[in-house]
Amino acid sequence: MRLDRTSRRALLLAAAGLVAGVVVGWATGNALIGVSIVALSQFVALLSSIRHRTDPIMATPRQTTDPRHDRLMTRSRRIASQLRDLRSAAGSLPDAVVLMDQAQHVRWFNHAAEDLLGLRRPTDRGRILSECLQTTDLAKWLIDGGREPLNDVTAPGHANRHISATLLPFGSRQRLLLVRDISHMTRLEQIRRDFVANVSHELRTPLTVIHGYLELLDPEDVPELAPVLGEMRVQSRRMGQIVEDLLTLSRLETQDRIADERVTIEPLLATLRREAEALSQGRHRITLTHTAATDLLGSSKDLHSAFSNLVSNAVRYTPTGGRIDIRFEPHAAGVIFSVADSGYGIPATHLARLTERFYRVSSSRSRDSGGTGLGLSIVKHVLNLHHARLQIESEPGKGSTFSAIFGAERLLVPGGEESLAS
Ligand code: ADP
To answer: pLDDT (tens digit, 9 = 90+) per residue, 290-323?
Structure first.
């Protein structure tokens, strides 16, 4: 039988203790001292054996004649130490991190997860995460699969903090939940929104007064100032429109849901066509195609505002003699409202930014045609509130098509009350 190094060391210690006990007992003539030394040495030998076997690092022989073994031991010690460092770094990350298996059983979480998500150690280890989080938005999102990142919901551990969350695949069959505290950004965003809304509101009254006085002044009384007066009227109207659009945007931004009323499409399309013709003044050929026999569920006022922005853009950015087609048609997702024009078109590099406030492809063209630079931002917000999607296709020199695609849950049978999706 071959004994390992630890057992040999323990055996040697026990044997030495036995010999020492017998010698001391015989030399002193005191059997009790001899027996005590023997017992003590056996105990120490036992302890040393246990200590070396239970501690993997200690169990490793420090000196060995095999250099490969030594290198291996050095590497494993280094990896163990790096793992400890990694764990401690993840533990003190400011973002909440939760490691789960595929069935969402919690395997590990850091300190921020205790704080932000209200997880408790050790009770929540091994539990299904969505059950630990109870009926919060985060739990609902996890139950739904967490495919898209979640933005701006209340933190389960703190009613007054806001979080964003992302679920990532980790290792072969694990998942990592990353949750970030975005309260600071949400607060700044709220301050920005309040500021814009307050400034717009404060500007409204003085602008109305200026506009009123300008209307009272008759250019015929002061012919030499007639061009100046004309320009002042145009600019004060423009400022008034910017303020109104900013107030509309502020209202839409603070809303998280929209009125659920019947939007009757037939009269809405007729109004849009009339508006297009009035704006065009006969400079364009305007057509209307209505093939989807459905009404919409949402806000009549906001949908009219969004659709009429698209129609007005088509007229303003299409030179005289161009074509404008307004369509309301069935679509694979539900229904599609689109406005196609044969106008200037938009280079592809601008498309992604068109719905940003005050973003213009050509500032002078927008200004000359009476634009505020806020129309498409309003369109985007209104469509988001209706869970609809804005699609923009354009080719410079050929024209553009702006489409709003509504899901089946927004469709209503004309004249009835029920949703087509139900
Ligand atoms: P504006 O009041 O300047 O028209 P919008 O937000 O409505 O602001 O549109 C943003 C920009 O998108 C416009 O300045 C214009 O450059 C471009 N744009 C919008 N609609 C069209 C269109 N139908 N054809 C060409 N360019 C367009």
So the answer is: 999 999 999 999 999 999 999 999 999 999 999 9
Whether 313 lines ligand 1, by a CB cut-off of 6 Å, is yes
Grouping H, G, I as helix, E, B as strand and the rest as coil, residue 49 is helix
DSSP 98: E
Closest residue by CA, ligand 1 atom 20: 313
Token pair belonging to 170: 């980790």
Let me know: does 229 contact 217? Beta carbons within 8 Å.
yes
Query: Which CATH number is 261-412's, of 3.20.20.10, 3.10.180.10, 3.30.565.10, 1.10.287.130?
Result: 3.30.565.10
The angle, 0 to 180 degrees and rounded to 10, between the axes of the packed helices 183-216 and 226-254 is 150
Instruction: Give the atom of ligand 1 at the shortest distance from the alpha carbon of 367.
Output: 3
- Decide: 373 in ligand 1 pocket, CB within 6 A: yes
Task: For ligand 1, say whether the CB of 393 is within 6 Å of any of its atoms.
Answer: no
Taking the centre of ligand 1 as the mean of its atom positions, its distance from the CA of residue 357, in whole angstroms, is 11
CATH superfamily of 5-181: PAS domain (3.30.450.20)
> Is-contact 258 296, C-beta < 8 A?
no
Contact 211, 236 (CB under 8 A): yes
Count of C-beta atoms within a 10 Å radius of residue 22: 15
pLDDT in tens, 47-76: 555 555 544 444 455 555 788 888 899 999
pLDDT tens by residue, 173-199: 899 999 999 999 999 999 999 999 999
State in Å: Cα 272 to ligand 1 middle: 18
Q: Is the CB of 341 under 6 A from ligand 1?
A: yes
The dotted CATH code for 186-254 is 1.10.287
Asked whether 378 lines ligand 1 (CB < 6 A), one says no
Helix and strand totals (H; E) in the chain: 14, 13
**In angstroms, what is the span from residue 313 Cα to ligand 1's centroid?**
6
Residue 360 is encoded by which pair of tokens?
Answer: 């213009």
Tell me, using a 6 A CB cutoff, whether residue 366 lines ligand 1: yes
